[in-house]
Records
---
Amino acid sequence: MKNRKFLMAANWKMNLSLDDARELLIAVKRTETNFNKVDVLIAPPFTALSLAYELLAETDILIAGQNMHWEEGGAFTGEISPLMLKEAGCTHVILGHSERRSLFYESSAIVNKKFGAAINAELTPIVCIGENLDEREEGKTFDIIKTQLNKSLDTICNQGKSHKKLILAYEPVWAIGTGKTATPAQAQEVHSFIRNWIMENIGNDAGQDIQILYGGSVKPDNVKELMTQPDIDGALIGGASLNADAFISIVHFYEN
Ligand code: PGA
């Protein structure tokens, strides 16, 4: 029986004006959420972090950065540091999203550097992994996932860092923003593989504790079935998180 809490994480990506962000944050804040069952997290663009911090103060809604640099500060034009994210009110940071990996050439080695920096700064990293369509069709899904885990989490495996502050997100690249969701069985198969990897490489307690989110076209009408799978502990939601009704309905998935 799993005792992990669900986490519904909104990844706004590079979307929403400040006015639209305000409206959406107020709508999410107003809804009554059972935080004993589900944690809620919002990852706005950097320019909306302070607005989110201000509007969500005194709520249990968590705030995350969508990316960060691994250094604490210095001559890194265009980057943001772990400490800056913390100062802006973040408790979490998304790392290695497939858009970072494919569009901005972030390797798993870079993700690992960022992962170590997040742990050092006491920010909880949400590390994303996932195969693309060719890799799935060539039957390489598990090899890709294993390699991404080994390389992106090298710090935890080889340097014995604490596992308590780690969340993983399985996001099949072919399901992101495409309307194609992995079936609950396809997702569960990979989540279970990831959980076994955690047990073997980090430890049994970690295997029980670490939340593994699913991401890729999660919508109000497919979320419940995904969440009934034993190794799926929440979702990383892109498109549907930009619409208040859709996101709130996903957060309340257990009522429908
Ligand atoms: P999507 O995005 O829900 O729009 O597919 C998910 C993600 O990229 O995190």
---
Amino acid sequence: MPSSLNPDAVAMATLEPSRYLLCIAGAWQAAHAGATFAVTNPATNALLTAVPDAGATETQAAVDAAAAALPTWAATPAPARAAVLRRAAMLMLERQEHLATIMTLEQGKPLSEARGEIAYAASFLTWFAGEAERIYGMTIPASQPHKRLLVLRQPVGVCALITPWNFPSAMITRKLGPALAAGCTVVAKPAEQTPLSALELGHIFLEAGLPPGCFNLITCQNPEPFAEVIFADERVRKVSFTGSTEVGKLLMRAAATTVKRLSLELGGNAPFIVFADADLDAAVQGALASKFRNAGQTCVCANRIFVERAMYAPFAERFAAAVAALPVGNGLAPTTAIGPLIDAQARAKVERHISDALAGGATLLTGGAAMPDAGAGHFWRPTVLGAANAQMLIAREETFGPVAPLIPFDDETTVLREANATPFGLAAYAYTRDLARAWRIAEGLEYGIIGINDPIPSTAQAPFGGLKQSGLGREGGPSGIDEYLEEKYVALGIG
Ligand code: SIN
């Protein structure tokens, strides 16, 4: 980190603590009892600011506000709803630098990635602004001459959105964009580690002309009172969650009580397969991009890198050299490629996965240790492990950190079987120059998102979501808005 960079000074100059309150019915307010909790910088462990620690009372008020705002917003013409989304996207892009700095301060990712995330987040708003204007119904030819059959598509109703810390802006807009485009109103709860980016979005939407009550924001440290209120309230018709499979299962059980619709974007265990016929440079760069995005803290990060034996030695050598050269540090420094992990627990998991792999016979090709010289932040030296295998913890669980295990393989059939041998099915990647193989692999991989010679397939225009225990439903793409619409069938007798 350059010596001129004082992250705490950047924080003081960037953050206005008075902006970070609960947003209920368009009014910014403290928690009832004045309770707050600390938001800290994972790069320095320094306090950034405090935000309201809301409970059941504030959540109930937010649901009431969303329910009160629903009829008017649902009846607002689609082009007017779209215009609000487009204005919000424009404001985000105008403030990209400021928003990216806030994100880096609270989440730790390098500023270049944070800028990219703001653009990615805004793109969901423009995409769904377009989709708002194309919510077509249907007419169906009836079998009786005196009947007309119609299908209307209407907003689901009040939606609760629960979002994670790894993409503090984009995971909200990927849900909020289609919800508002469809005519739904929202109560959102951002992750307790990264509430500031979400609260900034609340300000932006009000400035963009979104009526009060359409987007309510609750910050809290303990999610239980929030969850109890939203799952008990009949008016909340849908819950969308991005986070762990473990929590997703709890939410599925909770949703049964009032039969709410659910969208779940859960954990992954992405295979990244490098065939011997691949372009070696492209495969090395692709594995770097996929594995080390956000220091390995994405649900779609490569988790197991399978390399065909004929390509294994050159790939391992080049990949380990490239990983060893990645600059680690405070995300605010312009040269940083790898920021800190989110907290001490995340770092402990990385450590556990590495020691289990080394005990099981893996070899350390680079990295392998925390960075005690990096101050109070949760930094980990980017790591590559050679000769890993499917039995190791690192191949069975999602590591969510900057560690890449390389697993050699001998043939297509075996690697496909191994790649699919997991309860998860979010994203998978393959590098090959053989078109027929590319098709076979894309069809054979049991995953919702497949990148062939593409390490970052995520985009607002395409469906994002998983198979098996990686979730339910799709976000983004042409089908993303369907998650927030109900189909209503009308049979019209014409005598
Ligand atoms: C995630 O990690 O859940 C999201 C990553 C992406 O949108 O590409």
